[in-house]
Amino acid sequence: MTQSNGPVKIDSKAVAQTLLDQYDTFLFDCDGVLWLGTHLLPHIKETLDLLIANGKTLYFVTNNSTKSRAAYAKKFASFGVTVSEDQIFTSGYASALYVRDSLKLQPGKDKVWVFGESGIAEELKLMGFDSLGCNDPRLDQAFDITTSPFITEGLDPSVKCVIAGLDTKVNYHRLAITLQYLQQPDVKFVATNIDSTYPNKGYILPGAGSMINCVAFASGREPAACGKPNPNMLNAIVTAKNLERSKCCMVGDRLNTDIRFGVEGKLGGTLLVLTGIETEKNALDTSGDHPLPKYYADKLGDIYELIN
Amino acid sequence: MTQSNGPVKIDSKAVAQTLLDQYDTFLFDCDGVLWLGTHLLPHIKETLDLLIANGKTLYFVTNNSTKSRAAYAKKFASFGVTVSEDQIFTSGYASALYVRDSLKLQPGKDKVWVFGESGIAEELKLMGFDSLGCNDPRLDQAFDITTSPFITEGLDPSVKCVIAGLDTKVNYHRLAITLQYLQQPDVKFVATNIDSTYPNKGYILPGAGSMINCVAFASGREPAACGKPNPNMLNAIVTAKNLERSKCCMVGDRLNTDIRFGVEGKLGGTLLVLTGIETEKNALDTSGDHPLPKYYADKLGDIYELIN
């Protein structure tokens, strides 16, 4: 096989074998790569099994912060795929790591205000951080500044950071109290990820970045972002797992997040699959401002189909 | 009295009388100028009566889109101040005027999706426009893409515009459906106003602009803004009331919205009052990127107190 200058399509056994020979670690985005919502894509289980049989190490890297790693492991199990929690990195987990390891907040002492879902609070709890906000049912009440317990009881001075992510329970109460914490200059501001939208059952819905933008604009502050393509997330994985970047391949369905994450993170390889939002035209388009993948495939399952 | 180069403080009978002699029309911002929330400021009624007794015409111009002009007239009445609806311009009314007069949407045929409160929908209705969204109780239900009636029944093809404003009932359902309409390129996008925050009982809360930013970022679109300081609002008032700009004075408590509105709208005068968010230091600060007022006063009621 001759390596061309542009992305190489995985359309023969030889190319698929080259990919396998080149890398010892594969990092996968999940939605759009392994599954679409609740529907596993073709030959995913077989491809993951093939990689494991060939001695590869697999990690799963998602910008979805609504579920914890434990909840993700259960989702894998529901598809009959055995994946342990320590193979999974969510943007909620990456945010909690950032709070502990980069911001140096102290578990058991410093607290975090969560504008987002339980996937963030659960990861914080595992690290020993108390969190406020999130699913607190008092935030489901209509906001009234004279009766909100978060106002009448005063802001908690132990809160040293706001983590903001996708929150499908977003309401004015949550926005207003999040803003009160962000108005305190010593409270740090962390975003799980900045995707403006995400696809769901053929529709484009508001993503974490859109909701975070609301409180960012209101407070006049910019958050530190943790999810793909931010290097914070990759650095956390590389450090935790002691990875050699040149031997890693990032597999994803989005040029601007997954492939950028792999290219800017100086991983040895990137593989774009076309089962998510990108087309073959996009994969080969050199005129955009996004990086190009080293490899691309119609679907991840092609690796299994071509090798066998 | 010698006219200085900087803003002139209204601190003597002579200056107050000069102000009265110079203009025949006064446009007032409301919150922070006439009242703070539900509390009328000192000598407001007496000052307005004095202006009327001197033959002045008064208009009231607010970026608050949550109340209709009719609701505003009731608020004035609750303070014992008689103001008719046609003296009141809200950003919701300005948005409805913009939809009819600038976008040329057709009442009775074209519809508007409202991400905001009843102050917008009521003004649209008075012009003969049907609106969707807004207070529809079905939007208070948790969002589920498979069961939301706004998805299962399909988007309404008669909707030709989205008006977005402050919505204290904001939730994921409202954001998601608003985004579906904004993804249609032929649906126009109008913002009542773009204030990032607003003050309430000593707290700073998320304003219309912050919430609009969420759907603007998600859709990748920028709305046409109607409220102060946008000239759309002043043009609508000047046209509707056949005003001579040089004989008008804008009175407000915010340099960046009210005073900018008057200066950029080429009104004869501007008067900043210090009962809202600005200080005397701000009023005289030439280093900012905001315009300076022609006059300023500790409070609007000083006009009455100085003249009498």
List keywords for this structure.
homodimer; 308 residues; alpha/beta; Rossmann fold; 2 domains; seven-stranded parallel sheet; five-stranded parallel sheet; 20% strand; elongated
What is the N-to-C order of secondary-structure elements of chain A (H for helix, E for strand)? Answer: EHEEEHEHEHEHEHEHEEEHEHEHEHEH
With helices defined by DSSP (H or I, 4 residues minimum), what is the helix count of chain A? 12
Q: What oligomeric arrangement do these chains adopt?
A: homodimer
Mean pLDDT of chain A: 95
Calculate Rg of chain A over CA atoms.
20 Å
- Structural class assignment of chain A: alpha/beta
Number of domains of chain A: 2
Main β-sheet of chain A: number of strands, strand sense, barrel status?
Answer: 7 strands, parallel
Structure description:
Two copies of one chain form a homodimer. Chain A is of the alpha/beta class and 308 residues long. The first copy, chain A, folds into two domains: 8-63 and 229-307, Rossmann fold (3-Layer(aba) Sandwich); 110-225, Rossmann fold, CATH 3.40.50.1000. Helix content of chain A is 36%, strand content 20%. Chain A is built from twelve helices and 16 strands. Chain A has helices spanning 13-22, 44-53, 69-78, 91-102, 118-126, 149-152, 172-182, 208-219, 231-241, 255-264, 280-284, 302-307, and strands at 8-9, 25-28, 35-36, 39-40, 57-62, 88-90, 111-115, 130-133, 159-164, 188-191, 197-200, 203-206, 224-225, 248-252, 269-273, 295-297. A seven-stranded parallel beta sheet of chain A has the order 1-16-15-14-2-5-6, with helices on both faces. In chain A, strands 8-7-9-10-13 form a five-stranded parallel beta sheet, with helices on both faces. In chain A, helix 4 (91-102) crosses helix 5 and helix 7 packs across helix 8. The longest helix of chain A has 12 residues, at 91-102. Chain A starts with 7 loop residues before the first strand and ends with a helix. Chains A, B: This is 4-nitrophenylphosphatase. Chains A, B: Its EC number is 3.1.3.41. Chains A, B: GO terms for molecular function: alkaline phosphatase activity; metal ion binding; phosphoglycolate phosphatase activity. Chains A, B: Pfam families: Hydrolase_6 (PF13344), Hydrolase_like (PF13242). Chains A, B: Mg(2+) binds at residues 29, 31, 253.
